[in-house]
User: Fold these one by one.
Assistant:
Number 1:
Amino acid sequence: MFVSLEGIEGAGKSTHMPALVDLLESHKISCLSTREPGGTEFGERIREILLSKTQAPSSVEAELLLLFAARAEHVHTLIKPALEVGSWVLTDRFLDASFAYQGAGQGLGVDRVGELAQWLLPDLRPDLVLVLDTSVTTALERVQKRGQKKDRYEENDVEFFARARQYYLDQAASEPERYRVVDAERPVDEVHQELLEIVLELI
Ligand code: TMP
């Protein structure tokens, strides 16, 4: 099974990932837990560039190509080999993040992202996409409360995140068998419980 966790900033993906990995391990299922951009050494270097306010490229086209370069390496060296030996792969973001952030949020258009996806990953889509959904107001409040310096993406405005969130919701509505929207406005325990139940159904 190939499962991705998605959602706008502050939705709680990183809080919930470890529990999902623990659940799989408690069922003796081997699982690769990874993230995008990143996962490989090459991908982590690209992540550093993209999250930085001083090193990132100025055009969304260059940004998207870097994201796909990292993704191609990630798929080739980690994701596909893991799936081929029967391991699960759980990733904190994957392709949908490019549709949501660059395609919808930054206004490049989902068709352009789709062209790259078709070229580079014609046969690989997550079996399940868990969309942690919060209002943009909650998301931005949570980012603010972290008290850390914001990365380049977190500096985006409300309209940007509204477009990204809408992409996730529309996509989930159009493919309900592959996407599950989880209301992440609720207390962490409730969200946690629902995520575990969804993943348990797959085991
Ligand atoms: P994270 O905060 O979820 O770890 O992800 C890092 C940032 O990268 C996040 O703000 C979303 C952004 N991102 C994109 O804009 N496009 C992508 O394709 C991916 C994978 C991430």
Number 2:
Amino acid sequence: MYHATHFLPDYSLKAYNSFQFDVRARFFAAFQTTEMMQELLEQYQWLPYMPIHILGGGSNILFTRDVDGLVLRNELNGIELVNEDADHYYVKAMAGENWHRFVCYCIEQGYAGLENLSLIPGSVGASPMQNIGAYGVEIKDVFHSLEAWHINEKHKETFYLKDCEFGYRESVFKEKYRNRFIITSVTYRLRKQPVFQTSYGAITQELEKMGVTELSSAAIAKAVINIRRSKLPDPEELGNAGSFFKNPSISISHFERLHEAFPDIVGYPLNESKIKLAAGWLIEQCGWKGYRKGDAGCHEKQALVLVNYGNATGGDIFRLSTEIIESVYKKFGVRLDREVNLI
Ligand code: FAD
Ligand code: EPU
């Protein structure tokens, strides 16, 4: 344990990013209380100006180089039932709580709504960043509010649902307020009577396979965990950051043209004018699935996931991602956007 006022210089981030890149931070510090956080920020302002990067579990970051600044790791812990009404529990979790452990805790307590989001790596504090989502649920569906510290203005702010501008893998924190706030806690509005979301086909199939006759939050969580384990690589064993790209949306007329040329193309109506495509399908069709160059690769079971077989650098993965973007654009006229945060 080191004192809060000590920044660790030239610090390896290998254990703190799920790609397992051995990049270094010029300075590193972790905080377990909001007082420590404020003290660290106070002290840091006397150092020559260098950017501050907030780190949770490091499972959605691509470090392309050493970090010339301060990496501040959020280790705030604690979960509290702060309120309830006839239908809901309001559960506040500190930002450094591990997301999956928080989901498991809520299921055990009978707080429903997070079960589809089981096994997503990372921290509670990062969950609003990109409005994490899986198997038909996004955190915006159960979000109540969050507290965040404004780094420059040195005050606490509360954000409610409308303030966060949640979209598909988007929020105000991802771009507009990037590195401006430290999210310190998130409060979720969870149901007393669960409303099970099993519309994602694979869940129903998995529940059947498991022999489940009566739905429960725990059964859905287990089904989601089984599906995820069957196709997503465990970052402890193979460095990755989940889906590297977002699923793109295109106009209906563009989709119709593609559908004529590629009848198997996978797409889902998003609204009256847009179709969302499965980026994994597009990438696979370009021949990248299972591709490996040096230690950078495209996962053999899920083409949307780029992997580090050991000694790839963030630059290697970034270059591979650029090649993939270019080839998908050439074949389909569709531009993929990266989901991961580049540093
Ligand atoms: P980090 O990687 O540490 O940070 C991500 C970004 O958030 C950075 O820009 C960072 O600066 C910022 N940030 C982190 N904490 C804070 C804070 N307290 N305050 C302000 N900014 C902060 N995502 C999904 O949405 N759905 C999935 O199904 C999914 N599956 C995944 C599967 C695997 C195998 C992996 C490796 C990743 C997956 N992800 C998924 C991506 C990732 O798990 C999520 O984005 C997660 O929320 C990242 O949490 P983290 O704590 O690791 O964030
Ligand atoms: N597909 C292929 N080839 C592949 C991968 C996918 O053809 O190699 C096609 C299949 O037709 C499949 C479809 O794509 O049916 C969708 O695949 P999957 O169900 O695996 O979901 P995804 O679109 O690849 C998204 C999220 C995941 C989330 C799952 C489940 C994005 C960018 N990714 O993946 O989120 O867990 O759905 O909801 O939206 C993440 O964001 O990191 C992440 C893992």
Number 3:
Amino acid sequence: MTVGGLRAKVRAIGDDIENTERYRVVPGASFSLLDYDPNGTKTFDGNKKESQEVFDRLNQRLEDLQELLYADGRHKVLIVLQGMDTAGKDGAIRHIFDRTNPQGVKVASFKRPTPLELAHDYLWRAHAQMPGSGEIVIFNRSHYEDVLVVRVDALVPEERWRKRYHHIVELERLLADEGTTILKFFLHISKDEQKERLEARLADKEKLWKFDKGDLAVRAKWDAYQAAYEEALARTSTSFAPWYVIPANKKWYRNLVISKIIVERLEALGLKHPEPQDLAGVTVV
Ligand code: AMP
Ligand code: MG
């Protein structure tokens, strides 16, 4: 198949998935997480097998687009992944980016801040990890922890964390103004689904290392976290750095929707290979 033919086919297949706009948090509109079903698998009606071909095509397309982004060298891409424990941040990274080139894709994981990080403003460590030209950087957790765990556990007083929505929007505006495409995904799972996944971790020798007793204390504050996420998403979803609420109870559907959104946004950049140098008369001896 020609490249053009393949592109047309990929686009047609991508169109099978319903409009991804339905998952975007619209700035200024009223927003409730209750309106988003963590189980949703609209297009394929729960049919994982049927979706596999579509995912493979998107996966292939992402490989090509990432290579082109790197070659083009004019754009930077930041992908933020947030969600409760077991929501699938690690799994999404592994599956969605498995064909991309490690030279142009980096993952930054945000843990409890170190003393050095705590000695600086909370955006310092995030800013330092932002993508350079031609790069994709994936944030596994992010600066949003500073209005999530920090809020729920009252690690700083409310008058301090409340100002952070504004700081975050302005940092993201700066990045966008300077050529960064920003996509933020909230991996939305239900409390029941989390119970099953934590139990699976406990029962599986190879998953046990991921189990942290602290996760149970976080789970006990489920409602406080949902409220913190709801406000964070409502206040920081902007035209230049939108949030998407991804139905994440079904792992395959989570991967499909995130891939589709990333592919759509990269397609819209109009990426192209740089103009070759004038090679008239050049021969390899
Ligand atoms: P994990 O993603 O399972 O490796 O866990 C990382 C842990 O670091 C989570 O419990 C986060 O809530 C915590 N964490 C990340 N950023 C911060 C922060 N700014 N302040 C406090 N805890 C944080
Ligand atoms: Mg964990």
Number 4:
Amino acid sequence: MNNKRKGMMIVLSSPSGAGKTTLCKKILENDKNISMSISATTRPKRKSEIDSKDYFFYDEKKFFNYKKNGFFIETAEVFGYNYGTPKKFVEEKLTKGHDIIFDIDWQGTQKLASYSKTDLVSIFILPPSTKDLENRLKKRAEDSINTVKKRMLKAKAEISHWIEYDYVLINDNLELCMKNIQNIIFVERLKRHRQFSIFEFVENLI
Ligand code: 5GP
């Protein structure tokens, strides 16, 4: 049976520095049926980032013009900068049965749930400890000391949203954490409501 299914929106959220960017990259490398949703942002580009690959870097005028014209599924303000998820990419992928991974915060996750709860699989990644989170943020060293401090302060507030997620994982072992995410994706793909052609198949059986 050629069992067609709808794509799903897989959200990975965590406080900055809990390792979710590395996890996203590894998952994408290992599964060609998953694409990354590239957000737009008004935040300045970090040295290691590439425009149109890591983010679409827009100035405020362009961002708000796009927002006004319904270009985004959701937008949020994080650390004084604007972020948004482009709509067209998501709609095309879901219809074709491709999965999309999102590196967005809890605000974006709530808005994706209002957009389409049944297509959403949400995963929250926790750091193993506050010390570890602080070290990872410092090691990254791409943001100013002030930004690191702000992000540390915000981390606890972000973690308080863990309970709104379908799955919660502790990233104390990258390989294990990745395996767990892959297992989640594996079973979520098999869920009955995602399998279009199973209805027709069963009708023919009975
Ligand atoms: P960063 O500037 O460190 O890349 O991201 C800061 C925060 O913004 C992270 O928590 C990230 O998940 C979130 N973020 C990135 N893109 C989006 C987006 O399109 N929508 C929302 N709501 N949050 C986003």
